[in-house]
Specification:
18 helices; 2 domains; six-stranded parallel sheet; binds adenosine-5'-diphosphate; alpha/beta; single chain
Length: 493
């Protein structure tokens, strides 16, 4: 029946609040709860990294010893259990506890990452069996868990326990594929099935690309916005995997991420200097003045304040900003606050800009959630000139806090920000198409111009603040996709 509750085993290498490096953690922390609140039965699984505090999160042993096949042997781990969320809407979350693989300072970037995430993925499958809980859907995310669909179509093909299980694979960022040498096939137990070959994959036929296998074997593939789902079919955005994505495009769906509308609420956010909502915008400016004071910028309510909160990587389009920094700050009366960490060359770039324009620019190189919230609240505009952006959360959070986005029309940015048109008076942000410094400059100048008209500006701010970015809508779309996956699964077998 199409309304039956679904059993979903949800795998992610990071889940907020237990471990986070990026957007994947936010999705994994929110989507399962949204699915649970509309009646589905979800179990989340992640690795137990060394830094996850058992006491703090009240984690208890669920399985004393689970045997997990890896390479030519079997290795036992302990499974811990906790909860994601609070109150009525609590989802069970299981932690694969194998100190040999996960008791380290960080989450990624170890030489044995392939083995670490293969073990985790395989443990999740074996856990479902140990619990006697046969899932309708196994939902894996990004390269770390991308071999699950491959295993279900090979090693577990004739396993009665998974006879009704379909796989869904979500691409959160195609740029990180998990590419390894041949030996990894043995560790995965897939050596006898050999390589996958596609005439258009070129050099990728010579390696083991986890992301590629997720795409090739999943019953359904999703990514995190409709626009990105179209873009990745092209060589420009396809990261060399566009040939196989095009082959499977009837199974590729774009579903926009939501944001946690409860925590990210300017009316209740405990980090803000003053709380406000769309009817008390006068109080927003108090956040701006307090932010300016805190960062040592001149306290001026009238000057447009531009914010960036971001990983500092190539993807985010800061090369464009570098090209126009001088005219932007010399010829325009604006202030700019950056919060970000990442590649050294961008630290250097923004440090230089801050030194040249000390009364206009504040550059902060830390990962600091309270400061991030204060920048969303204190800024008037929020900049994301990304080269590509699968979904992007920053622009949605900014709108929620009444900061108007200035974005390049790509991926989720294109799907969430409508350009302001002064003739029709529609839209609520400032967008540009070409990946080009002058196009960015023009969008910024339009934003600064529009800021001179406070009544218009406030109308746009309210429009942005009223947009619904909650997970509820996306969760319903995931349910549709899960049911489509089950249909594909039945059709294929
Ligand atoms: P990505 O997943 O590519 O990093 P997103 O826009 O999807 O980009 O998500 C970034 C998230 O991380 C946002 O919630 C943003 O506020 C947060 N963030 C990024 N850098 C920092 C930082 N230095 N301090 C605090 N939060 C940050």
């Amino acid at each position: 029946m199409s309304n039956d509750p679904l059993r979903v085993l949800f795998l992610s290498a990071e889940v907020t609040p237990f471990a986070k490096t990026g957007g994947l953690a936010d999705v994994a922390g929110s989507l399962p709860r949204a699915l649970h609140s509309i009646g589905h039965d979800i179990k989340v699984v992640m690795p137990r990294y060394g830094r996850i505090d058992l006491q703090k999160f009240g984690l208890k042993e669920a399985v004393h010893s689970l045997e997990v096949p890896i390479d030519d042997r079997s290795e036992a781990c302990r499974i811990l259990q906790g909860s994601l969320g609070t109150g009525e809407n609590k989802v069970p979350i299981y932690f694969v506890d194998n100190p040999r693989l996960y008791d380290r300072d960080g989450i990624y970037m170890y030489p044995d990452d392939a083995e670490r995430f293969l073990y985790f993925s395989r443990a999740a499958i074996e856990l479902a069996k140990a619990l006697g809980w046969s899932p309708d859907i196994i939902h894996s995310n990004d390269w770390h868990t991308a071999l699950v669909p491959n295993w279900l179509k090979t090693l577990y093909k004739d396993d009665e326990f998974f006879a009704g299980t379909a796989t869904v694979y979500t691409i959160h960022n195609l740029a990180y594929q998990g590419i390894f040498g041949h030996r990894v096939l043995e560790i995965a137990g897939l050596a006898e099935y050999g390589f996958v070959y596609h005439p258009d994959l070129g050099a990728l036929n010579e390696v083991i690309d986890f992301m590629a296998r997720g795409i090739l074997f999943a019953d359904v593939i999703t990514t995190v916005s409709k626009k990105y789902a179209e873009e990745i079919l092209t060589p420009e955005y396809g990261e060399k995997l566009d040939p196989i994505l095009r082959d499977r495009k009837d199974r590729l769906f774009g579903i926009l991420n939501g944001i946690d509308m409860e925590t990210l609420n300017p009316a209740t956010d405990p980090y803000l200097y003053t709380n406000y909502d769309s009817r008390s915008l006068g109080k927003k400016v108090e956040n701006k003045l307090a932010l300016q004071k805190h960062l040592g910028l001149p306290e001026r309510p009238d000057v447009p304040l531009l914010g960036i909160i971001s990983r500092l990587t190539d993807q985010k389009g800061f090369d464009l900003l570098a090209q126009i920094a001088d005219p932007l700050f010399s010829f325009n009366d604006i202030q700019f606050v950056l919060l970000g960490t990442g590649e050294e060359r961008y630290h250097h770039l923004f440090q230089q800009v801050a030194q040249r324009y000390p009364r206009q620019v504040s550059a902060n190189f830390t990962f600091n959630t309270p400061l991030a919230q204060r920048i969303y609240a204190g800024s008037d505009m929020f900049l994301m000139p990304s080269k590509f952006e699968p979904c992007g959360l920053g622009q949605m959070i900014a709108m929620r806090y009444g900061s108007l986005p200035v974005v390049r029309e790509t991926g989720g940015l294109a799907d969430t920000v409508e350009n302001y048109d002064p003739v029709t008076h529609s839209g609520h942000g400032f967008t540009f198409k070409q990946y080009d410094a002058m196009a960015l400059y023009t969008a910024l100048v339009r934003a600064v111009e529009t800021y001179q008209y406070p009544r218009t500006w406030q109308t746009l701010v309210r429009r942005g603040m009223r947009k619904d970015f909650s997970w509820g809508r996306s969760a319903k779309e995931y349910v549709k996709v899960y049911r489509a996956a089950l249909r594909f699964r039945r059709k294929d077998s």
